[in-house]
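Tokens as discussed.
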């Protein structure tokens, strides 16, 4: 029985059009498609906690027997320009408030919130350590906040073109391992890892017990199988470390949402084995 579950992304954020999300329709249509294709779950990127009613989301999850794998918080950055490492204390607190509201939103579906773009970046190379300390402090309090729900918070290292605070799994381990809440897990995004890691299976093995979510994407951020990622050793390593969680397709809707979703599900079935389920 495989405990690695499949998920596909849904974005409701207009400002993120063209970004790496598979479905862009309303939640009900997207959930219907996810179910039809055989996914276990969806991952939702919403503009904020009140954009869509929790009851409406839950009704779609119930109707199509899907779980909520995770909820993104990046709209805080994309729409409001907020970051958890902002040097301005009031803005930083505003960013923490936004993330808390998204933790509340995710908790309604028993889903963790993701800290990706909301980590922000240092304005210059000599401010990286200071900025990372601010991020670490914000994560410290948000980890405790999520723990009240008994749900982890997911921290995602990003590639160098998106942030200079945490680019590799080991740098994320360094940030979260001393957190007093012990409630922050790492999101391993294969697209970012392909750019930053020296040896992806090795990095996964090193961060093994802290990995809580995986973004399942190929080298060009299209569906797995559409780029040149050497997927098998990564899948073998996830199985070897007994990863229990989602592999979630955070990929471009290329050539269109349906084909991207079909290709992802096809790859998932090949690599994680229908027979295991
Ligand atoms: C951003 O590139 C990303 O990977 C997202 O999951 C985080 O916001
Ligand atoms: Mn990602």
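Sequence:
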């Amino acid at each position: 029985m495989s405990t690695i579950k499949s998920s596909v992304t849904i974005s409701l954020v207009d400002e993120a059009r063209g970004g790496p999300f598979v479905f862009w329709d309303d939640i009900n249509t997207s959930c219907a498609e996810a179910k039809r294709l055989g996914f276990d779950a969806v991952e939702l990127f919403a503009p904020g906690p009140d954009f869509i009613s929790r009851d409406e989301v839950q009704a779609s999850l119930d109707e199509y027997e899907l779980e909520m794998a995770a909820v993104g918080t990046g709209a805080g950055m994309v729409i409001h320009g907020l970051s958890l490492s902002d040097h301005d204390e009031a803005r930083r607190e505003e960013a923490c408030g936004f993330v808390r509201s998204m933790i509340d939103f995710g908790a309604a579906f028993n889903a963790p919130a993701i800290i990706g773009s909301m980590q922000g970046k240092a304005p210059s190379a000599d401010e990286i350590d200071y900025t990372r300390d601010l991020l670490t402090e914000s994560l410290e309090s948000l980890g405790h906040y999520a723990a009240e729900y008994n749900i982890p918070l997911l921290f995602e290292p990003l590639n160098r073109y998106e942030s200079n605070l945490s680019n590799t799994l080991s740098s994320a381990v360094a940030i979260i391992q001393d957190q007093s809440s012990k409630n922050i897990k790492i999101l391993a995004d294969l697209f970012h890892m392909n750019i930053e890691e020296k040896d992806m299976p090795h990095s996964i093995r090193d961060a093994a017990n802290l990995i809580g979510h995986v973004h399942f994407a190929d080298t060009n951020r299209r569906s797995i199988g559409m780029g040149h990622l050497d997927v098998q050793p990564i899948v073998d390593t996830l199985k070897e470390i007994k990863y229990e969680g989602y592999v979630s397709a955070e990929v471009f809707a290329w050539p269109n949402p349906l084909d991207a979703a079909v290709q992802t599900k096809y790859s998932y079935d090949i690599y994680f084995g229908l027979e295991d389920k």
